[in-house]
Structures are given as structure tokens and as C-alpha cells.
Amino acid sequence: MNGADILQAHIAKMVALTPEQHAAIFDRFTPLSLKKGQSLIHEGDRVDSEYFVLEGCLKSYFVNDEAKMFILQFAMPTWWASDYQALYSGQRATITVDCITNAEVLKLSNADREALCAAIPAVAHFFRWRTNRGYVALQKRLLSFMNNDVKIRYEELLQQYPELYNLVPKQLIAAYLGVSRETLSRLYHP
Amino acid sequence: MNGADILQAHIAKMVALTPEQHAAIFDRFTPLSLKKGQSLIHEGDRVDSEYFVLEGCLKSYFVNDEAKMFILQFAMPTWWASDYQALYSGQRATITVDCITNAEVLKLSNADREALCAAIPAVAHFFRWRTNRGYVALQKRLLSFMNNDVKIRYEELLQQYPELYNLVPKQLIAAYLGVSRETLSRLYHP
DNA sequence: GTGATTGTGTGACCTGGGTCACATTCGGGG
DNA sequence: CCCCGAATGTGACCCAGGTCACACAATCAC
């Protein structure tokens, strides 16, 4: 399946659009091919776009002053990634987005998104829905953080995204779970 | 300032609307007066509305199987509250929303929100923006959770919402910070 | 007022997870 | 095929924060 089809299928799950509309939408996106390790957004950048993942896996993360990394999101195919704080507010990026594997993404600028939302109400609806879902998912993650210990959070994560297990280094999974790599390692090597 | 004015000012901060449109919007909301302790959404309920706070303070929280409470949000005036997971998915509520103090709120049903969004594109824009803000704020909270210890999180919270200090019991603040009340108490009584 | 909640301080003790240090294994480039 | 850096396992030790238990307010109902 090519990029246009993947994007179309993704949007069509939520709102009904004509082929012409899908074409008009796709037209606003810029395809990018990325190599493992390449970064899309770097701390301090101006951010004017978000990215829709077609293939591969990205991570978005924050690095604190002790150089410790905290992963906000692993972005798998059909997920979106950006520094939304920076994108929406115009401030400089505080988080970094880069590639865990080679990846294919579609880039959409803030301006193009807004143009699409203004032109096609169903697209505005789609993006509203998308952020709603993201919000709810984030709330769930926060609750799990407060409620459960590492082991349970790890198992939840693997249950939801089994691919991650052999796709990303355990260190990164630890950084997502908010624990040290040693602790994660000890979970199953007591 | 009455409810209509508060709501209007809140929306006008983000999108420009005519007085007629503001009136049409307000028309969809139902004012409710609530007593301290009264609950708007209870675990297991069907949820078909969200609430805009005019006055007072609500909390939304999850209670785990050991009866431990985790507060997702203190909803102060001009904040919105609901069980969004339940509201958007149609599933039954897993979280509870109730009043920490007497409160005045405006109730808006899912159906009315969607009707407004469909009728007035700027309203769709407003709600998209609102959730975007919420998403970013939640990300920030999650990061702070992974990054900082209780003391720092507590100070961040008080700096952002100084009113909370004498408005809500320390127990609840502890439940928001994700620590025991004893730990919170010991922070400043060593 | 008085008795019953509901909130808060505090001591004693326990434990999940952090940190540091070092050994081991693995994957890919030359 | 061999070497190097990245990723992982593991031991020793430490500490923030949890739990339990009990003492004191403060607030409310009547």
C-alpha cells in the first residue's frame, strides 16, 4: 500500500470523504524517506509541521539537564508525531523526534492542516477526533503511571504493541516506562 | 459576571464570533448548581455530557481496586471536565467527577457539541484547539511525573494554581501528585 | 456543647527502584 | 572474519516514598 492509500484508509476510518477530497488532502502532505537515527525535530528548533508515519518507528522524547531521556511516544505506522507544544504555541522545540528505524513519513505543515480544516469541515472533525483519542490515551498512561509498578506497565505496553519487543532496544522501552534500564532488565532476570 | 458572559469570554479568547453565535452556543448549555460533594459522573454511568466550570472546584478521579484515589484533574472556573474516555467511546464511566466545593457549571451534551461544531466551523476550531491545549498540558504533567520528585511537582502545582493551597485538602493534592498524604505532609514538616 | 467525622502531623519500619561498576553478548562495518 | 561500540545482565549498596499505627486538630450535625 502506498502513502496515499495508507493516509486515506486512516482518515476514512473516522470520516467519510470523496476520492477528490482524499486527493486534495494528500496533496498537502510531503513524503519523506528517513534513515535510522535521522531526526525530524530537535530541541531548540522552530516547529511548523507534524508527521504521519507510514512505515518504520519514530520516538519523541525529552532530555533533562542530567542527559536523561524520557520517551513520550513511540510513533508506529498510522501514528502522528511532533512537538505539539512547540507546533501550537510557536515556541521553540523542547522535545526531539527521531527515527528508531528507517522510516517513511508524510509531513504536514501547520498552515496546510489549518487550510484543510477550513476547506473541508470533515477534516477539522477528523483532527479534533484524533486529538481527543490522543488525550484519552495519555490520561490512561498517566493513570497507569500513578497506579501500577513497572512490571505491569511493561506488560501493558507489550500487550498493546507486541512489535516493540524486538523492534526497539530495551533501554528505550525503559525510558518510555520511566525506569532505569537495569530495573527493566531485572524484571525477567531476577 | 454571569454564565453566558464567562463562557463567551472563554470562547472569544480563541475564536471570533458574533453575539448571535455566542447566544446560539450558550443556548445549548444547561446551567447546574451543585453542592459540595455532589457528583456529576460516577463510575459505571453512561456519560453523554461534559461540564464547563463557572464557579467552584471539581475533581475528576479514578479509584483503583484497593480504593486508592488518583486525581486526574482539579477543574477550576473556565475548565472543562468529564470522563472523556466514556464520553467519546460510549463505554461506561471509569472515572468519577464530583464537587470539592459548591459549584456552578454549564452542562453540554455530546450531541449538542457536535451540532454546534457542525453549524459553526469556528466552534469546531475552538474545541479542536481546546483539546490540543489539554493534550499538551497532559504531556507536560507526564514528563514532570517521570522527571521530578514530589517536592518539585508540588511546587509546580502550587505555582500554577495557588488557590488550591487553601481550597482543597492536602490529601487530594497528594492524590493528584501520586503520593501518599504522609509523604506530602512530611515535605514541609520534616 | 458534645460526639462524630474528616483532615493533618509524626514515628518506625519496609521496599521498589536508582546508581555505580563491571562483565558479557550481539550486530554491523571494514 | 574480526573488531568495536552498542545493548544487556548482574551484584552491591542507597534512598525516596510507601505502609501502619496513633495522636491531635478542625469542622459539622444536632
Principal-axes geometry of chain A comes out as globular
Which two chains form the greatest contact, residue counts included? Answer: A-B, 32 and 32 residues
Major beta sheet summary of chain A: 4 strands, antiparallel
Structural class of the secondary elements of chain A?
A: alpha+beta
Number of strands of chain A: 8
Which stretches of chain A are poorly predicted, pLDDT < 50 over at least 5 residues? Answer: none
Tell me the quaternary state.
homodimer
Second-tier CATH architecture of the domain at 3-113 in chain A: Sandwich
How many helices of chain A in DSSP terms? 9
Order of helices and strands of chain A: HHEEEEEEHEEHHHHHH
Brief rundown of the structure:
The first copy, chain A, has 190 residues and is an alpha+beta fold. Helix content of chain A is 48%, strand content 22%.
